[in-house]
Design brief:
Chain lengths: 395, 395
């Protein structure tokens, strides 16, 4: 079936997360992604457990729909093969520490000479320039330096790492936007360019309300846990069995809420008649709500409040997300047959396009699975030439 | 200066965050974004404090580089104007609750009849289909239902909302990728399509490691706070004045670390000689590290460890992020002159393109600032016609 990014060829030198997430999103929408991996080793994430029949579940979840080509970029013949592929590609993407591609003599200035139409995207922790350029980066260091970790906390409590790697993932998403924008521009100008995406830069972009607040008032935002600064009552409350999230953003919802939970006396209470008063008296209101919500299970509260149109929901565990009927309806869990691991489940495609829908059509590749195919079809190599390259461990 | 998305015209009916974030990213890269707002009221975020001379800092931080057109979509003449603009636009984006555009008789099926090339993007909490379709959604409800909030916690502690609205923001980023992919496909096929992005779907995509782990083992992932499941020592530790994050991912870094912090005895300690052993004895190692790190300030540790190549960093507050020399070097804080608010600071452009760089060139619009210009230039309306529309409060 026809997909939106059919015909876009991406040489993908990335490892682990930010880069592979970016190219996964593009592969889902139809781009041909050729994953270039170190012979015999491959993407670091191939060695990350847990494993299914020896195959990394983590690697598989990030690399469906891609092709794997093994290539030793330290070897002269390896470099030559990469340049040959660059000549036949639209995009090259890497997430090495800045300077690595220069050392390999495969940096943008070299590759653009091969193919002036090449779009070269580099994702790194701190970017290709600036004082921290060469600092090693991990997601949790970026989360800490970028401000989100310090704010993600309960008042007075320790900072908390966001449990998914938003430092990596958002950088991957911004990079995908940059690549698609550059492709569009190239259709007009005929020329490629370099895209430099830094995880830390992306974290600054994510700071939305806290950053705006700081610039407006010069006051440093502090953690507010699960509460809302201006809407009350809004937040997460313990119930008899777990937690309930509610969001009551205006006085009309408050009235409905008090009636539905059979606390009409709160409607008369002068401390709670407006959102401003409820915010002022939020500590006391919070205690009353905590007492109320502890009397029933979350599912009962959700049913009751949902029927009344009160924004609410549970705090789900991963298994509950994976087995949620709505998530199922939306096809957000898909499975794909892998030659070794068998049926593997993973997240589906969140960009739902009506006419050219994305899809998870081919399984994550075995290391080097497409090496022969790519060298033969794209570069016209003969079998004996490929055999010789393999013997020299160049592929 | 030439930008990558020059020539792309977007009709933006979105409010508050997911949609405005999406169109901000596209406007930064050159798209012409016409923000369609309710006459006299505008985007809800215009009423969100704190204010700078009466202008919402939050609204301004999300809407730089856009034009504002006021339009009453409930009025027949308002609908006609929107259809006129749809004929001259590439993209329409909205983030109403599903069903709202149908009620306005401005849903995709109506608008595509006006312009078959139209790309129509809808962002919503739960998507345009499925059992939760009409459920009201806020970022924190999506974070709760999508799994990230339950995992973002210290072991045994309460779940924690991620302090920035990653539910909204990541949906905005995925939507931008969908829009750009659909534009590319349209260049080939000549036809637009509908893009349906649900915040909850995007949260499933974000679950990366926890979801892969669950499918591989059927064990439900539990919060691990600021530690790492398999790399030790990795995490955040209190120092004399605040916190320090370190990431020691292999035995070679461990050796360097012990030497640099003058704890050579740890190198001899049988409990710590390999990453596997350090993970096994992480509780005891954590205590030793806590005692060590409490002896100095974070800045001193960062300097010491950084010079030795140990991945590390502080946990920054928002003011520290905003004033960081690297963030400054990367131009990730920019300022723009606003007619009323004066000089306003905000996050810069995280997608750094070498030949057609994005930029924050024009300030966030005053409500209806571009109404006359757009009606005259795009629809050819005369002054007296515009005056009559204004008197009828249609614009």
């Amino acid at each position: 079936m026809h997909k939106a990014l059919d015909g876009v060829r991406i040489l993908d030198l990335t490892r682990v997360l930010a880069g592979p997430f970016c190219t996964m999103v593009l592969a889902d929408l139809g781009a041909e992604v050729i994953k270039v991996e170190i012979p015999g080793i491959g993407d670091d994430s191939r060695s990350a457990g847990p494993f299914i029949k020896g195959e990394s579940s983590y690697f598989m979840s990030l690399n469906r729909g891609k092709k794997s080509l093994t290539l030793n970029l330290r070897h002269q013949e390896g470099k030559a093969i990469l340049k040959g592929l660059v000549n036949r590609a639209d995009v090259l993407i890497e997430n090495f520490r800045p300077g690595t591609m220069d050392k390999l003599e495969l940096d943008y200035s070299v590759l653009v000479a091969e193919n002036p139409r090449l779009i070269y995207a580099a994702i790194s922790g701190f970017g290709q320039s600036g004082p921290y350029r060469e600092k090693p980066a991990y997601d949790f260091i970026i989360q800490g330096m970028g401000g989100v970790m310090g704010l993600t906390a309960h008042p007075g409590g320790p900072p908390t790492r966001v449990a998914v790697a938003i430092g990596d993932i958002t950088a991957g998403l911004f990079a995908a936007i940059g690549i698609l924008s550059a492709l569009r521009e190239r259709d007009v100008s005929g020329r490629g360019q370099m895209i430099d995406v830094a995880m830390l830069d992306c974290q600054v972009s994510l700071l939305e309300n806290p950053l705006a607040r700081y610039f407006a008032t010069q006051e440093v935002p502090v953690p507010i846990g699960n509460t809302h600064p201006t809407l009350n009552p809004t937040g997460a409350y313990p119930t008899k069995d777990r937690y309930l999230i509610i969001g009551i953003g205006n006085d009309s919802l408050w009235k409905t809420f008090c009636q539905v939970v059979d606390r009409k006396q709160w409607l008369e209470d002068e401390r709670f008649t407006t959102n401003a008063k409820r915010t002022e008296n939020s500590a006391h209101l919070g205690e009353l709500l905590a007492d109320l919500f502890r009397t029933r299970n979350t599912a009962d509260w959700v049913e009751l409040l949902e029927n009344a149109g009160i924004p609410c929901g549970p705090i789900n565990t991963v298994d509950e997300v994976a087995n949620d009927p709505h998530v199922d309806f939306r096809k957000m869990i898909v499975s794909i047959e892998h030659a070794i691991a068998g049926e593997v489940k993973m997240a589906g495609v969140p960009i739902k396009m009506s006419r050219t829908p994305g899809a998870v059509d081919t399984p994550p590749p075995i290391l080097g699975e497409h090496t022969n195919e790519i060298l033969q079809n794209l570069l016209g190599y003969q079998r004996n030439k490929i055999k010789a390259l393999r013997e020299k461990e160049i592929i």
